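Exercise: predict the structure of this protein bound to zinc ion.
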Amino acid sequence: MRSAAVLALALAGGAAAQPLAVGPAARYDGHALVRVQLRAAPDLRLLEAIGADMWSHRVEAGGAGDFMIAPDRMDELDASGLDYEVLILDVQRVIDAESARIRDGAGRGAGWYDEFKPLADIGDRLDALAAARPDIAAVFEAGVSLEGRPVRALRIANGSAGDPACKPTILIDSCQHAREWITPMVCMYAAEQLLGAYGADPGVTALIDGAEIIFIPVVNPDGYEHTWTRDRFWRKNRRDNGDGTFGVDLNRNWAYAWGSNTGSSGNTGSQTYRGPEPFSEPESRVVRDLALSRPRLAAHVDLHSYGQILLAPWGYTSDLPPGHETFQMLGEEMQQIIAAVHGKHYVHGPIYTTIYPVSGGITDWFWGDRGAHPFGVELRGPGFNPPPEQILPNAQEMYPALVAFASWARLAHAPPGDFNHDASVDSLDVLAFVGAWSAGDGAADFNGDGLLDIRDLSAFLNAWNAGC
Ligand code: 0X9
Ligand code: ZN
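Solution:
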């Protein structure tokens, strides 16, 4: 293959390899979305047996879940005796309406957040954000997907403040699951607002001076592209499993407590197929390797949709994680911040008992393996294709919650010797500590024994000597 073919490929849109096998686009004629009242765990297996695609599920809502069911399986649902209500009669009509709206530009007002965006637009916007603030923002390629698409990231940090080795990293990603279109929008909005607030909002300025914040709006670019071109409700990546099925659920591919049949599946065709081994997929490896490259990983947020839920570890067990009280405190704080914006109620709690068991999930890995504080977030619905009017309010309510969480994580994960929290361990920290200590400031109770004495001074100096 030379000149002409290469040129045609280049013009067709750059580096992304195009999938070779292109069959007819997936259709959902007559598929219904039903909300089912679940009585017990076996009901979930029953629904799986009739090929139901679980869209969302919340234990706290009395075990109600939304499931998409094919028209030829509705009889089986009726025969099951399960109580259900129909939310959408014909899912294909909703897809058609959505694509017509996007094609005609009907939902498109002046704002970027008035309509869902394809992968290329998200990439362009990332470039524009970085170009507008080259002093504190840069786009980089975190890695490459299975089909050769770049997994792009935006890094926000102030290179002229502090010492990089002292800076806590906050990582925010979205779209492990391809069909959850609202998630990259909310992710982009948070990055954009953060950049806009630098220098104007003291809290955000301190955050950007004292930490690095990395956004990955589309972890699963192959799957995302697939939802725009072939199958609106594709969830997994695009791995050819070699048996006629495609896709690994990236959020079951992480190494912490990987492989349990509670919370993931070994069946290649399953929506929660975990892959042949932990980190078998390039997309999960890209995020893992980025995390491993950061010396001081503080927090991780993984955006999903839908259900309005703030999710803490664990996903693999109902046992409470170490630090459970801290997660409860943070969940409550974010819940209140979100509610104060547009009045939306988000529930919060551990994954396992708040939605359902998840093993090999990203959130368990960040806490169990890395010790970074993670949250998984289920954003607004309804469904994976909410009206585009939901995008902006959803983004507006999440942004301050993310800032609060990131700001907490920056301080909680700062090097102990960085007493004044300016992301360097230097003589200013000694001055600040001695000042606090002689003023009887509780912050100088460095060993936390309730007393201010010489032991605090020596504990501080040990930490200070250790540097970052
Ligand atoms: O099943 C999942 O992976 C998530 N639900 S979804 O409907 N978006 O597929 C829940 C996982 C919880 N953990 C994180 N959100 N990280
Ligand atoms: Zn998801």
